[in-house]
Amino acid sequence: MTEVEHLPRLSIASLGGTVSMQADAPGRGVTPSLDCEKQLALLPQLRELAQLEIATLCLVPSASLSFVMLLEVLAWARAEIEAGSQAVILTQGTDSLEETAYFFDLLWPYDAPLVLTGAMRSASQPGSDGPANLLAAAQVALAQESRGRGALVVINDQIHCSTRVRKTASLAMAAFESPGSGAIGELVEGMAVYRQMPCPRAVLPLPERVEHRVALLEACLDADTALLQAVAAFGFEGLVIAGFGAGHVSSAWSDMLGELAPNLPVIVATRTGSGTTARSTYGFAGAEIDLQSKGVHMAGQLCPRKCRILLWLLLGTGQQSSLCSWLPH
Ligand code: GLU
Q1: Is 18 annotated in the active site?
Q2: Which of 68, 177, 242, 317 is most buried, by the most CB atoms less than 10 A from its CB?
Q3: Quick one: which atom of ligand 1 is closest to the CA of 21?
């Protein structure tokens, strides 16, 4: 047996994003152009850690990923684990990373880690963070302590759980946080050090259909109800509202949500970026007591974008009646 054959098998796929971007001429904007092979060429030491199975599944900015594309990526990742890989790493754009990580986490049935990473600086920029993030992702992916934690986001030497992680800065290197709980671990001298124990995980079955749509609207000052009326008219099957404060809307929006809620699942989350929604504090029209009496679900800790992912997946298998159990306070 050669030395390489002793190494664990690690599967890495590129989906695009800044980590794969460079400018094709000086002064031009960067676009996805480095496939997985070219990204790995920037990090030759990775081949000393593992036998690599690599794939370029797409090369797109992460705002252009679709649920159908993610299901194809998931099928590839599952096949890699079934073929003997110890873990899977996905590199992608950071813009939608908080959503894709949660999507994969809800559907990932293995103890083997699924690690997502990206970069804030393209391969054309000095101090590009792509190779360092990829190395950290591999170190986390191969660590025994990472097993049983579902999909993890590894970036800027931190390890985040996919349920909490959010991109909270547009261009800063330290662009990711897990508000409320903090990162679950960090990289210390190349080792994954966890600060929190793994949480019990529940996994959803694969969706049986993909054509359904869930709307996400933000409550804002003096907004009329025209867009809410359009939600039902355009055939959306679920609605998430990024509400004010602890999960509040105007009294006019509350009336409209009350009309919608008997016909489709409606979730109200907080648009603040951290904290939970209230359940029993405020008694005014448009607050949580009023909304719940109309059949609206309060999101708890889950941010509006992740609520939309959850609802889409639940609707895809007809499990929307279990929604409450997925919305922790
Ligand atoms: N800053 C983003 C990134 O890290 C832009 C592009 C994208 O999300 O694909 O990749």
Answers
A1: yes
A2: 242
A3: 10
